[in-house]
Amino acid sequence: MTTAEADSTTQDVTDTEMPLPSDEKQLALSLSPCSSRSGVFPKVWRRSIQDKNLALYGFRRFKTSHLVNLRFLEEEIATLDRRIYQVGLKLENDTLSRTQNRLGLRHSLRDSSVPSLEYAITDSMVLKMRSLLKEYDDALTSFNKLMAMETFSLVDDESQSRDRTDLHPYEMYKTRLVRVDLGTRSMHDPFRRGIQKALQRLQYWRMRNNSGTDEERGSTSRPSQDSKAASYQNTALVAGILSRTLVSLMAGIFMVLPLIMVSHQTTQKTRLTTISVWIVGFSLSISATLQASNLATVGVVAAYAAVLSVFVSNQ
Fold first, then answer.
1. Among 112, 113, 105, 102, CA closest to 85
2. Which residues are bridge partners to 59 per DSSP?
3. What angle do helix axes 190-211 and 235-263 make, rounded to 10 degrees?
4. Quick one: what percent of the chain has pLDDT higher than 90?
5. How is the beta sheet containing 58-60 ordered, strand by strand?
6. Core-most of 155, 160, 267, 315, by most CB within 10 Å?
7. Which residues, in sequence order, are bridge partners of residue 178?
């Protein structure tokens, strides 16, 4: 064997037997064709270049997982909070004055076995409490912002719902995704929300009938990806247009009909009765359909009453 061949053999053995560093192993594993991220990348890429806003800017909010995480944090903090209170009550058992009861400490239940002050209140416990409180406060704030975001149902975009083979059509109807391209909902409009839910319900019925779902047996035969074009509806946009249109029509009816009725009445008493009935009906309608503040409701009703009163006074 020549020197070159020996060197080549030695190099091959060295390359084979030399273990890779941990960082390089992680990099090689992440770049492997069998890795999970490379397998899911085609689906992620297709969603990231969609032309429709629901598919492009719609994300799952994992509401239940957020709530479970908050409950776990709540239980951990409650355990520490209970320990702090019990140690404090034991410390102030004899020195607590009768007038010092802002927190109702005299009525607090006391545990039979309370650890000592040196064992219960330690630096590690304080640091753990600070970490849990910060994590809990951040999670609460984030979840509050998440729940204020505009949502849509998974059935609104049939192309996304076809990818979720793990869900029943009714689960898709109940699944809510958030729109990151829209602002937060500053005011909850029950009238608009009711229209949006009705549109989502109609879309669910249409999907259920087209897919041949047997809900009693729990079996579903899904159409193929290319068998039929996927439907798409922006319920937030449609519900907003319909709610504004219906509110405008309702306002026009409340303005025109009482004026027509009053113009055909001859006595002042009858006119005042008609105007009073319409004002009460208008205020009830505003309160039932629109979630406005108390001050805004009073202002709108006062303006409506002023318009009708001016018309009556000119007759």
1. 105
2. 178
3. 130
4. 17
5. 58-60, 176-179, 151-153
6. 155
7. 59, 151
In sequence order, which residues have a C-beta less than 8 Å from that of residue 111 and are 6 or more positions away?
86
List for the chain the helix, strand, coil content (%; round to 5). Answer: 65, 5, 30
Q: Model pTM greater than 0.90?
A: no
- The CA–CA distances, whole Å, from 134 to 77, 131, 137, 266 equal 11, 5, 5, 71
Distance (Å, rounded) from C-alpha 39 to C-alpha 314?
A: 77
In whole angstroms, how far apart are CA 181 and each of 31, 53, 213? 32, 8, 33
CA dihedral sign of residues 278, 283, 287, 291 = positive
Coil/strand/helix, residue 226:
coil
Residue 177's contacts (CB-CB under 8 Å, 6 or more residues apart) are 54, 58, 59, 60, 61, 151, 152, 153, 154
Residue 136 tokens read as: 């809990």
Q: Return the closest-CA partner of residue 48 out of 40, 38, 56.
A: 56
- At 18-32, the pLDDT tens digits run 444 555 555 444 444
The C-alpha torsion from 134 through 137 and 143 to 148, rounded to 10°, is -140
Spatial separation of the C-alpha atoms in residues 220 and 208, rounded to whole Å: 9
Q: Where does the pLDDT of residue 93 fall: very low under 50, low under 70, confident under 90, or very high at 90 and above?
A: low
Taking the C-alpha atoms of residue 297 and residue 78, their distance in angstroms, rounded to an integer, is 41
Phi and psi, residue 122, nearest 5°: -125, 170
Give dist(CA 89, CA 110) in Å, integer.
7
Residue 99: strand, helix, or coil: coil
Expressed in angstroms, the distance from the first to the final Cα of the chain is 122
Give the amino acid at 178: V
Overall size of the chain counted in residues: 315
| Token pair 């975009």 in the structure block, residue | 157
Element (H, E) at 136: helix 123-147
